[in-house]
Design goal:
4 domains; alpha/beta
């Protein structure tokens, strides 16, 4: 065994991973080679003395490391008051109103997303994106991350985000879109626990029977958000009162949800109102390819 081979086995011998044959060969080499014997003695002594080489970390280093590796959040002013906004390098991870103490948000964040979050600066572009979403402005959506959520929650929220601004869909529609048509209640639960409201627009989901239904921050805020996006409160209330779930066009033979962008272009004299997909089909109308209304 030459010097290079012996040195390759030294660490294996120290950790007990070398077999008996290799150990004997190295021992014989060390007896014959003064340089390798000296190096082996040095390594053995280093192992013994290494616990004494530990140093205490400088004051504040733990906090600095946490700030660099942990998710961070800040508090921003919005039309609805202060909002705690969390983010990761991938995007906005949480938005929460009505939080009185930072500790409450930190606990919520860890419980909901399974990660630590610390107070720090929030990129101005992300802060502005939250403010614009709350104001109902039609802008490019900011980056959002759904890390920490279940696959079902991610799927539901990703499909929810496809509902255009100024339009609403029923809970049953979203359940069908994610391939779980019977999971309407489960979809409602995802909406109630949505960590990024306003950005993942749970306010655009309404009951099939009309109106706006429930909302984590109350129905009045939901009304306000929809009005800011161009949906008139009296229209939603009127459709519910008359039992209107779909509207169609005499000229195109297509029926839509009332807030669909195609439905808004139907002239009054050509407009039809339906209480069910079956009624629309009886009038010879087919479903819109944009809003994809529920079939009978």
């Amino acid at each position: 065994m030459d010097c290079n081979e012996a040195r390759q086995y030294l660490d294996q011998i120290r950790t007990g991973k070398a077999d008996d044959e290799a150990s004997r060969a190295v021992a014989e080499h060390l007896e014959a080679c003064a340089d390798c014997h000296e190096e082996a003695a040095f390594l053995k002594n280093l192992v013994v003395e290494s616990p004494n080489l530990k140093l205490n970390a400088p004051a504040g280093i733990k906090e600095e490391v946490m700030i660099r590796i942990a998710d961070r959040y800040d508090v921003i002013d919005t039309d609805f008051g202060p909002a705690h906004v969390g983010c990761t390098p991938k995007g906005i991870s949480a938005v929460k109103l009505d939080v009185e103490e930072d500790g409450a948000f930190e606990s919520y964040y860890e419980d909901r997303l399974g990660r630590i979050v610390v107070r720090g600066s929030l990129p101005s572009a992300l802060a502005q994106a939250v403010r614009r979403a709350i104001k109902g402005e039609k802008t490019a959506p900011p980056p959002v991350t759904l890390e920490g959520l279940t696959e079902f929650e991610k799927t539901v929220l990703e499909h929810l985000a496809r509902i255009p601004s100024g339009e609403v869909r029923p809970y049953a529609w979203l359940a069908r879109e994610v391939g779980r048509p019977k999971a309407i209640r489960a979809v409602g639960t995802v909406m109630a626990r949505n960590p990024v409201p306003f950005l993942m627009p749970c306010h655009r989901l309404v009951p099939s029977t009309g109106g706006v239904g429930n909302y984590y921050y109350g129905p009045e805020m939901k009304w306000t958000l929809l009005e800011r996006e161009g949906i008139a409160r009296e229209d939603l209330a009127g459709w519910k009162q008359r039992g209107v779930r779909f509207v169609g066009s005499r000229t195109t033979g297509i029926y839509c949800y009332p807030t669909c962008r195609d439905a808004r272009r139907i002239q009054r004299q050509h407009r039809l109102e339906f209480t069910s997909p079956g009624e629309a089909a009886e009038k010879g109308c087919r479903p819109c390819k944009h809003c994809r209304p529920l079939s009978a």
